[in-house]
Amino acid sequence: MIGMSVIEHELASQPEVWRKAAALAENVGALLPQDGMRVAAVGCGTSYYVAKAFAGLREVSGAGETDAWPASEAPPRHSYDMVVAISRSGTTTEVLRLLEGLPSSVICLAICAVPDSPVVSVAADSIVLEFADEESVVQTRFATATLALHRAHLGEDVEVIARAGEQALVSELPVRPSDFDHFVFLGRGWTVGLADEAALKLRETAGAWSESYPAMEYRHGPISVAGPKTVVWTLGAVEADVIADIRTTGATIVRTDIDPLADLVRVHRAAVSLAAARGMDPDHPRHLERSVVLT
Ligand code: F1P
Questions:
Q1: Which atom of ligand 1 is nearest to the CA of 290?
Q2: Which of 43, 84, 263, 267 could be 198's S-S partner, Cβ–Cβ 3.0 to 4.6 Å?
Q3: Global pTM?
Q4: What pLDDT digit, counting tens, does each position of 145-173 carry?
């Protein structure tokens, strides 16, 4: 690990961590939302974007109605059967405040990386991915492990995804990030949350100008900023006519057939590469702490 940043070390462990998450899913399946439940997934920052992807996956699989909210904006609805609170640290204030205000009729499940954390204490049930905890302020493997756990629970073969993740760790990056000054990520369905997370990684790690959209929204205004210094990176399949319209802007388009979760690993690597090119330390992102704890 000599010469490697902490985030590089952690992002490289993702396929292995996903396998552990999938194995855990077999034991904790009864805690995760059962088919037909009305669920709200909540979190802050990365964990909110994971909640969005979590909700999208559950909706697309037909398992049940699922909303995603930033913890600070979740409506006090009593009609949810379950709130799934995602927080690596288990200390984020907005998540705690939300859980403390929930009526007892709502089942509360925490997905955290720290066993004795406040969020775990407040929630009725918890799934602790201690093996996915991170030293790095910028999250990579806790976020993706949470999604691997959920995908395993929904019946997907995480081994296939982990193998794609291993390829994503060693394959050449699709672009040289330092050739660009503007990064746009597009998704469809559950990968909209993944696109948000990808854009956040570029901002947190490398201070980059990055944006994210549901792919069909991109033509409704944001495309006007695209140009030759823009990379538009799609996570998962996107309609050919959207791609054709982006091409006219002169932007470089990244498209791939690999699993979107595995492709996020390439985004992590691109973020670290851009930070290095900009002389930034990816382990010390500007103005960020491990979690936001309000007094
Ligand atoms: C969430 C989070 C991170 C973000 C920043 C502050 O923490 O918002 O996503 O990168 O470091 O904290 P958590 O609730 O998942 O611990």
A1: 11
A2: 267
A3: 0.97
A4: 999 999 999 999 999 999 999 999 999 99
